[in-house]
Every structure is written in C-alpha cells, then in structure tokens.
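hey so u asked for the seq, here:
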Amino acid sequence: MDLLLIQQILVAALKTGTPLLLIALGELICEKSGVLNLGQEGMMLMGAMAGFAGAYYSGHLFLGISLAIMAGMAMALLFAALSLSLNTNQVATGLALTIFGTGLSSFLGSGLVGSTLSGFQPIAIPLLSDIPILGALLFNQDILIYASFVIVVLAWYVMNKTRVGLTLRAVGENPHSANALGINVIKVRYLATLFGGAMAGLAGAYMSLAYTPMWMENMTAGRGWIALALVVFASWRIGFLALGAYLFGFASILHLVMQGFGFDISPNLLAMTPYVATIAVMVIISSNALKQKLATPMSLGKPFDPKLH
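ran it, structure tokens below
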C-alpha cells in the first residue's frame, strides 16, 4: 500500500467522520447535563434540508449554515419544551422528534430532491498543506472541517477547565445538589440541549453542503443513531469521542476500500460495516456494566422539577 493510497483513505475517513463528530459532540454536552435526546437523526435531517434549501435559493453557503443551525436548535427547543418544561418522557419524546424530523424534512425538501450545488471546497493552508500525508489530512480541508477542529478543542477546554463545564457536570450528576447551590438546573439543561441541536444542524449542513452537496431524503443514513452509540463508546469523554468518530468514519468507507482491493464480497454486505461496528461496540461496552455505570452521568434521562425541591 503506497503513501498516496494511505493518504486518500485517511482523508476519506476524516471527511466521513466529521458529521459524526459534530452531532456526537452536541449529544455528549447534552447528556453531560442529564438530558438524553434521541432525536439526533431528525434534527440532523432538518439541518441538512434547511441548510441546502437556504444555500440553493440564496446562493450563499454561509446563509445555509446559519439556517441549518437554527433548524437544529428549533427542533431541540421543541424537545426541551416537552421534556424539561412539561416533564414528558425523554426517550419517547426523542424518538417522536426523530420521526417528526424525518417526515418534515422529506415534506419540505420534496421539491429539491436530486438538486445539487457547488458546495464548500478545500482551502489549502500555505506550506503546511505540503507536509506529506498530514498536510492533505489536516491542512487542505473545507472550512467546516477546520471549524470542527476548533469546536472540539473549545468544547474540551470549556468542559474541563472552566466554571461553565463544572456547572454542567454538576447538573448532570446531581441536579438536586446543584439546585440547592443556586444553579438554575432547567436553564442549564435548556442551553445544553440547544447546543446539541445546533451541532446536529451543523452536522446536517456538512452533509448537504460539503460531503455530498445535494439534497435527498434520509441522506444522513442513520448517523444520528451511530452518534448516540459513539457517545457511550467514548465514555462521555471528548478526546475519545473524536477518535471514535474518525474510527467510525473509517468503518463507513471500509467497504469502498475492500472493493478497491478486489475483495469478492457483496457490496450490500460491505455497506453494513458501520452498523455492524456500532452493534459490536455496544455489545463490548455492555459486557462491562460497572465501568459503563461509573462513566454515565448519574441523572441522565431523569426528569427534574424545581417546584418539588
């Protein structure tokens, strides 16, 4: 295997893993606050549709990104209003949000199916992009991938080095103690949920404006569900989340790599690779129940009513 082929595989894995990284990061922050939002797939689809429609009709890609983020946040706000203010079951509400987002994106985007546009193009950073392998991998990408690097670093810093991160973790671990200390638990959870929606919308925009600059129904192909598994796989740690996203990205293109090497296997079976990998990861994680329990935010998925405390 020559260096050029290795470089191409790594770049493809990076591109494929980026939407997983963005949406999973949003879900990780959301879950750190104690909120379990299973509506990631629906929010991502709405972001992809809104982003593509905005860019297609306006001719401005950055307007498309803005609309995608707002669409994701609007869906997240709906979820927050139901689960945090009205105390509906978070699991059921999240599943309903995915069904709603899938149907609504298909309905609103029906007139754009198959339409294409000129999406975000790679921007080479002078000198750095000439470094063998790493240059093409890290310094010759589109602006959304560069943004994902920055967002991940900032999120890690905020979560581990600032009072904001400490507050978020406190709310996720013990909302009753946090409330007793004067922290507005519901407000913190609303903000975390909205951040998760923004990241889901941005991930959707990446899909329809950079990865495959077009719109088609269900184009996220289950990435929202994979992102949920990825958060558990990473044990709610951002560094492991980034590594896992790119590993899952590699699993997603593995069928193309194997076909390129001439493996005589059904392409439909090979296309199942990322989903099989997801199941395998969940089985492995479930085998160590104690470790998973220690890593899971203690109040994850549990409602909190400040009027009762």
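The mean pLDDT is 90. Residues 3-308 form a domain with the ABC transporter involved in vitamin B12 uptake, BtuC fold (CATH 1.10.3470).
lmk if thats what u needed
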